[in-house]
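Help!! Second protein's tokens look totally different from the first
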Amino acid sequence: MLSYSFMQNALFVSVLISILCPCIGIFLVLRRYSMIGDTLSHASLAGITIGLLYNQSPVLGAFLFTSLCGGLIEFLRGYFRKNADLILSIVLALSVGTAITVISSGKLRANADSFLFGSILTVTRSDMILISILSAVSVLTLILLYHQLVYIAYDEEAARIAGVKVRIINYIFSVLVASAIAASIRITGVLVLSSMIALPVATALQLERGFRPTLIFSVVFSFIDILTGLFVSYYLNVAPGGFTALVSVAVLAAVMIGKKVYSGFRAAMV
């Protein structure tokens, strides 16, 4: 299986996103922003179609448009403080409307369907280079802003009072979310991309450890989910994105059941 170049490309990208997605996702989940991740995942479809329309990299198009939408969400937070849910509706309307308009215009010469469900056949060498750059810059930025991001994740107002430049960091974080989404769309697809960001973190949170152990376990569970989904979907001849989402749910359910059984066993031993 790994003798095929497209599987080598897919494996390389899968390893990168298994590290990047939970590193971004843990901050989204702790800030209760997982729905923003879902909104931006759907927004990436507009960037993909625009990239394809102008014969440019769809990954780059997804990154640029999703970054724009992430910045727009942060900007609109100042205008809809009491109705934050409206912000997501506005961004979804903009992005989905753009995608449908481009697709239905008849000017799109490429098929965007593979980006909806994910396809291991579509990962090219140029995609690998771009995804590697996005992943490296994102992880480096996360390392540099680690303490500020943790502070903001637990208490944004306290971080602002302490002198953390919350507004600027939120804009930077929006770009980081966009990079994680753009890096993942080839493998996971738009429709289930948000699950790759949130579910490994949700699984790690069941272990009830500190922040750093939770982050490490999130990466471990992400690695298990994505690699299992990639290899098994190859043999089943199904879209890797959807099957990876099923694996993520199954792993989460297994950890929750294991935790319940372990708690019951400990209670019985006391």
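Here's the second one for comparison:
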Amino acid sequence: MSKLNERVKSENLEVEKFWVYVVLMLVSGFYGAFTYTIRGGVFSNAQTANFVLMAIAFGNKQWAHALYFVIPISAYLFGITISEVIYDPMRKLKILRWETVLIFIEIVVVTILGFLPESAPFQISQIAINFICSMQFNTFRQTREISVSTTFCTNHLKGMGNSIVKFYRDGKSKDKKEITVHFTMILVFVIGAIISTVLCNKYLGRAILITLIPLGVIFLKFLYADLKKERDKFDIVPRGH
């Protein structure tokens, strides 16, 4: 079976369902507020802001502070690389999909971070969350035949703007669907960040443990799909890969 045909037939895979992307976007909003508010003022979900902050520090001749941003940027790059290298080999083993393993890794990382003492260096949380966010970004790429991100909002603003213009110009239901998808992803990201801010102000680092609930739901659904429901579909490649 060609990769093109595999992708065409992959629309019903559990790992591509819209609810999964919505939940992951909610969790990512939580991560972003978590690291920025109580873990050193660093963004974990994407790296553009960190590049800007690094450039500002260099411009102000704050050399040590500028180099500090190399930590989250490098962690993000490493996560992208690992997820890209491991994706196809994991699928071909036909034991568990990489998506399932990744969610389990997130659960382990979140659990460890939740029980770190507040005196622990911020870099531990920054590296860990940048790492898992980058792998998540590179792994979950498309739902409902729409390219999306589960870790930041910029591409959703672009997609929503493009779809609004196309819908009012052509009136196609596909464009209306894309508007809804992009708007929903932005909304849940903001909600996740608000929840994170409120809980972090009250519980500090322990607040991140709340994300174990949505991550646990995703993991159990993925595990059931891999072991039972979609056991015969390992040859199908999720869209975007």
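Reply: Different proteins will give different token patterns, so don't panic. Confidence is low (pLDDT under 50) at residues 1-10.
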